[in-house]
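Let's study a protein:

___
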Amino acid sequence: MQGLFHGCRIFLSGDSLFLIKEKILTTTALNRSSDIQTLTASAVHTGPHALPANTAALLKLREELITRHPVNDLMRENPRALLQFFELYGHFAYGFAPFVCTLFTALKGQRAKAFIYDNLLDEMGCVGGQATAWDNQHGELYRRFITTLRRTDVYRSYLSESDTAALDAASRRLSHQAYATYYELIAEGNDAQSVGAFSGVEGWVAAEYPFWRDCLASLGSDMRFVDLRTIEIHCEADVEHARVLDELISEYAAGEQTADVHRGLLRGIEISQTLFAGMQVEMARSPALEMAG
């Protein structure tokens, strides 16, 4: 099995995973050297099943291609880029609950449906059996976050109303592209593949949100006026989501659906990489960033 990600071809053969660099691109995290021995050495025990080395390598790759993506460097170094990122991520956040709902409906296996259902309840703001309201839904919490962020002085000092409108339009387009690909994949009706692809997002979110929280703190005292519930919730809940999801993946990988779950992982990784590459292109349109580079 193989996949191509921005100049690097990924091969899965037996218990081995190989990354072969075909050309250097500065627009993705794949312009760094990849030590496959480091990846496979991290094969972990997840629940009752020990992850095969190639599965563990894909799970680590799934996370590191995002956590080490150049977009993160831009966010860390440039406040304008940071604010641009949160605008560009907006429609992906708004569309996540409908995506999880569609995935739940499409799955056939009870174990997978049970996990996705718990995830869906969290996305809808239903925690611990407590009563909830429509505005606790995670997409609405992100909308509240971005609305309050736009009101701050630091936001207005870097982004104009026309910037915001352009970023919102780009966010809508990038989100539509990502979810269209996900929905096509889910429609193929393969549970292991669908869960593997879902992991292409859920697997890195737990690592990214604490980084985003730290970046926001660097913007200063204005952050006390921003509704950060969406950030705090994901810093906590998604660690458990990722752990349980990796257990499910380990069950598929230990059985007869290894190829299916690996194919899903590769396709999910590609979707996330395409999303972040698209956001990087939009962020690079900023004259301030061009001068900084």
